[in-house]
Amino acid sequence: MKSSNTSERLKQLMKEKNLRQVDILEKCMPFCEQYNVKLGRNDLSQYVNGKVEPGQEKLTVLGKALDVNEAWLMGYDVAKERKEFSPESAKKDIELIEKFSMLNQTDKQIIMDLMDSLLKKAGN
């Protein structure tokens, strides 16, 4: 569920990390070069002021530069922390999905309820 927006999340990060827009742009430079994405002062200003929402490429650059989850940066109720995927974690995720798919509907619902309970307990 979406409870915020990119503007509010950027402002929150700026306050928490004592960053100015120019600081964010500096943090973004290496990722802009890596992904061949142009992110200028005007772009960032419009994002911070809520006039425009960043596209996927610029959102990725911002997320990596600020070390936050892109979905969180968009305003969704997800963990703020970034999760980088590796081949090992992908294998485990696939294994979980395969095992889950072998369960009957009743057991799947039990697992879903348990996960919801654990996430609620963890504050997510």
UniProtKB/TrEMBL annotation:
Q: Start and end of every HTH cro/C1-type domain? A: 44-73
Q: Name one GO molecular function term.
A: DNA binding
Descriptive protein name: HTH cro/C1-type domain-containing protein
Q: Which domain of life is it from?
A: Bacteria
